Here is the input.
Amino acid sequence: MRIALLEDEQDQADLLCAWLNAAGHHCHAFALGKDLMREMQRETFDLVLLDWEVPGMSGAEVLVWIRANIDEPVPILFVTARQREEDIVHALTHGADDYMVKPLGKLELLARINALARRARPSQRPDQGVLEFGRLRVDGRSRQVTLDGEEVTMTQKDYELTVFLLHNIGRLLSRGYILEAVWGQSADINTRTVDTHVSRIRGKLHLTPDNGWRLSAVYQHGYRLEQVAVEPAK
Here is the structure.
């Protein structure tokens, strides 16, 4: 997952990011709430970890802002030294999904993150079965894509991007997020790579409204794949 962390203590941020990265996630740390908020307006994250006591806007204020301004229902986990019952209740009633009190245990943190991910996106892994959407079929075991029963020739990255988009139908995905998820690279790498592959996939799989799909570019953000109703021929 791509995880945003709000933590102003550098040692703590480094430790948490090391845990998360070692577990296969991509951690992006922010010391200030305003920086996290600005990034969330243009980037996609699967989960947010918030400390309460940070300079400027508190984690609690950032929580309220996220729930009011970010349409994507991203899970939020508080990781803070504040342990009063009223603080926990405040966070949970204002939109937090879970709450952990410092000092944190690595295994418990990772377990809670995985539990939040399962609840937020209870989809199967790409290599565990078959995805079928009308004329389009993706077999994760043979890594074969067929359209109208005919195999579509694809590169490895075209296939992985196709599966990734199909597992995120309706979700707005930033180019940086797609790069990290499919290529495993930093968002600093040239995002034209994403644009080129998306264009190729759109053409090969006929992802157009007259075929029941809309794969649209969202200005200054990324892409969204949607299923749409096909108008009957007149």
Q: What stands out?
A: The CA atoms of residues 72 and 185 lie 23 Å apart. The radius of gyration is 20 Å.
